[in-house]
Design goal:
This protein is an alpha/beta fold. The chain contains seven helices and seven strands. Strands 5-4-1-6-7 form a five-stranded parallel sheet, with helices on both faces. Strands 2-3 form a two-stranded antiparallel ribbon.
């Protein structure tokens, strides 16, 4: 049929793409150290070997970080809020329940595969670039300095979540072990 390529109408493809581009911009929020206070569970990472199961099992007891929660709620006024975390997929249910309990906006949660051990700055930047193909990324809010630096270098607007204390063990784990 004339005007069709690969079974799809090129004009229709353009209309769909333009429609996606006109959707609300995204505000992308990290969880641990940005919205959720992980201080009570960082002890699991200070052991040798690190107790990852204990670290993630304690996540439902995280207290909310007021600064991050307020920023997410404010961002929801103009943006669609989505969540980008280094938590493994096996933590999805606990994560969804925690977000709902805090009254945070519903939004897609991007999590790492259970076997993905790449540094957070690589996995998160990969997802940000994928999201930016079809949507405007208004802001990324994250506490990991390396993630923030790489995102800024890639042209994203970043808010550094510096309102929670993190341990050296957690920072090392984010970069070297690709766990959160």
């Amino acid at each position: 049929m004339p005007g069709r390529v690969g079974g799809a109408c090129p004009a229709l493809s353009r209309v769909v793409r333009v429609k996606e581009k006109s959707s609300r911009p995204l505000a992308v929020f990290d969880l641990d150290g940005t919205l959720a206070d992980t201080a009570h569970r960082q002890r699991f990472l200070e052991r040798k070997p690190r107790d990852w199961d204990g670290f993630f099992a304690a996540a439902p007891q995280d207290t909310p970080l007021a600064e991050g929660i307020t920023l997410a709620l404010k961002s929801a006024e103009e943006c669609e809020v989505v969540y980008l975390t280094g938590r493994p997929e096996r933590c999805r249910r606990d994560t969804e329940d925690w977000l709902a309990a805090q009254g945070l906006p519903e939004g897609r949660i991007w999590m790492r595969r259970n076997d993905d051990r790449r540094p957070a700055r690589r996995t998160k930047l990969e997802i940000l670039r994928r999201l930016a193909r079809d949507r405007e990324i208004r802001v990324l809010v994250d506490d990991d300095e390396l993630v923030c630096e790489d995102a800024e270098r890639a042209g994203f607007k970043v808010v550094r979540a510096r309102w929670a204390a993190t341990s050296a063990a957690l920072k090392d784990a984010q970069e070297r072990e690709g766990r959160t």
